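Hello,

Our lab assistant flagged a job as stuck in the queue for most of the afternoon. It eventually completed. Since we weren't sure the result was trustworthy after the delay, we are filing this so someone can double-check. Below is the sequence as submitted and the structure that was eventually returned. Let us know if re-running is recommended.
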Amino acid sequence: MKKVGNHNSITRKLFLGVALSLIFSFTSFAQEAAAVAAPDAAAAPAAASGGDAAKGKELFNANCAACHKLDAKATGPALRGIASKYEMAWLYKWVKNSSDLIKSGDAQAVKVFEENNKSVMSSFPQLSNADIDNIIAYTSEPKAEVAAPAAGGATAVPGGPVADSGISNNLILAALALVLVVLVVMLVLVNKVLSKVAKANGIVVEPKAKTTPIWQAFAKNQFLILVTVIFLLLTSAYYVYGFFMQVGVDQGYEPIQPIHYSHRIHAGDNEINCKYCHSAARVSKNGGIPSLNICMNCHKNIAEVAETTATPEYSKAFYDEQIQKLYTAVGWDQATQTYTGKTQPVKWVRIHNLPDFVYFNHSQHVTVGGIECQTCHGPVEEYEIQKQFAPLTMGWCIDCHRKTEVKMEGNEYYTKIHEELSKKYGVDKLTAAQMGGLECGKCHY
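-- returned structure --
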């Protein structure tokens, strides 16, 4: 009997590939199990004796955080380690009524008062000695050190899940690539074996019959050519029309601003009302760009963000740098808590820009119409970088006027005309279009 091929060699290659895959799998599993089982080295420091640091944190945030920070000077001095600088008996008196202590001529109280620009500290007679002990325990906790990420590794977020190193995904891809290579090798070997078997048995494989190339057959068919030309013309016209209809439409426009402002943090996490910053939208045609003084209403005492504010894309250091840009623009000296008078203009990049021939009044929509800001500007509370949500085309505005009902609750301005027009159209609620919202002169004057 004639030997046609060594089939055992193929089997050995398959077993070798499977063995390598299993070895890599067990190695990866062992590494991941060790990482999960490893105890957290950066354990939270024990609370200072004499008070409950957890309760102290709550009291600090409720009473002290408006003027004090743990590790940076604000309106008042930094408070971390304050217990090592002053006696507890003196701290009790100072917290409960600092003004009386200063008036009594206490040298230490007068010194603190002078060092902090003679800022008068609020009195807290409602705080007991135990409450103050708790606050002192919180301020006595050592500062948590942020561990530097290992080279090439994932950055761990405090309190969050451990990021996947990606070893498992690479292993899966490697195994799939190995299987694919083995299959290709097997096909080549099988083809060789079949060719040898056919040759040994005198089997002659007939050559493939010569056929007309498909492009030549297509070129000879005039009907197919006509249909193809018509299809290409219609397709081209469709795309050309779509291109020209997008001229001047900037939906999704998301420019980078000179100072990074996160609507996600302000309108989302902190639930600041849109009209607190954009107050002009209630009474004016324009929504207005908020003055930086509005920003300083809060950021006088907020010089840095919390650790939990950071995202994989934007670190805490990045957000803190943006606050420093704000301070530079308004001329705020954080060390002395005073304005220097040296200001710099901020060149904001405009996002929403209607054509000059279009009239749009914010107050008409926001105050009279009661339209929510998100209707036109999208879910701004979710935006890290503000962008143009709506196309702001004529068709988009007309469609909104046709669908939006006029709010009549407490709106006496429309009472008489609403009664007359609702009878005319036989409806209980009129839309903006039925109130004349489709007249050309409403938007083009």
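-- support follow-up --
The delay was a queue issue, not a problem with the job. The result is valid. Residues 102 and 110 are 5 Å apart (CA to CA). Residues 53-139 form a domain with the Cytochrome Bc1 Complex; Chain D, domain 2 fold (CATH 1.10.760.10).
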